[in-house]
Write the structure tokens for this entry.
Amino acid sequence: MLYDTTDRAYLDGVSGIAVTNLGHGHPRVTKAITDQAKRLVHTSNLFHIGLQEAVAEQLRAITGMENMFFCNSGAEANEAAIKLARRFGHQKGVETPKIIVLDGAFHGRTIGALSATGNQKIRQGFGPLLEGFVRVPPNDLTAIDALGETLNGVVAVLVEPILGEAGIRPLDTDYLQGLRSLCTKHQWLLIFDEVQTGNGRCGSAYVFEQMAVEPDVLLTAKGLGNGLPIGVCMARGVAAEQLGPGDHGSTYGGNPLCCAAAQAVLTTLTEENVMSQANHIRDALLTALHGHLADPTLVTEVRGRGLMIGIQPTTATDQIVQRGLDRGLLLNIAGGDTIRVLPPLVMSLEQAGEMGAGIAQILNEIAQQEDRA
């Protein structure tokens, strides 16, 4: 729950854009932050940070990755991965390394991450952007084969397993497995951007676990600090050997305060098994949604995994966020016309049902209004 300045309550279906996966004021996370704030907030990476190494060990145990670079955001994690991939290419003698990215993808708003992003609206007005990115449509392996001579110089493939800003659009498991095979065959790096899908959001620590596809580089942020700014670029195998001391850096990255929050988040996810609630909450929300729709054709599709939910309505979506606020629901629109619902993993089934019913009532009202018009 969130409360506004007049103490009105809202059910949070946004979670700070997939950040507060453990809700607001989780006792373990709050205690970790307050205890660490009293002890030490920041020293920089000029000095040994035990908490940073402890979080790295937790992530190694969860993901199987080997080396970690800590930063402050998802965009920065993507920037680190772009540098890593380019260094990998130069080490192989590729003068102008290229990275394959997907149409509609979102990787961040800094220049490198923006250059990798496939959304023209977000990119507009910020050129010239970086060269070295080759765009293909999602879920189409033949599009990569069709690149022909353009494949010369490719060193990596960068994808979101579920395209978030594009409207919660999961990549097919067969497609991701095909990418893994292509990358292994051509000695490219497979990079997964799990900034939004990770940290329990989709029902597992990271969604690649559900797809039986292991990336060479794994990126995350958002829910890792449950509101404190922390991101990480993780790598294994040859990818873990590309960046050494001085090749990349961050003044704030992996500082004790943010790592204390991340340690508490990862401990909660693994020890309290809250991730197992994701599908139960999803089912309760969607059951209520479909049960309260006046006409089932008001929703054509529901996409995503766990608590990364994309609801595709047939009504206009321009009023949905405001109507949600009026009903005490925090909602979001992604991809222009998709209701993006990102509840916390600690939401009760009753609250989930309330949210699903509320979304249905909003769609019913808009449909009635459109019929009268």
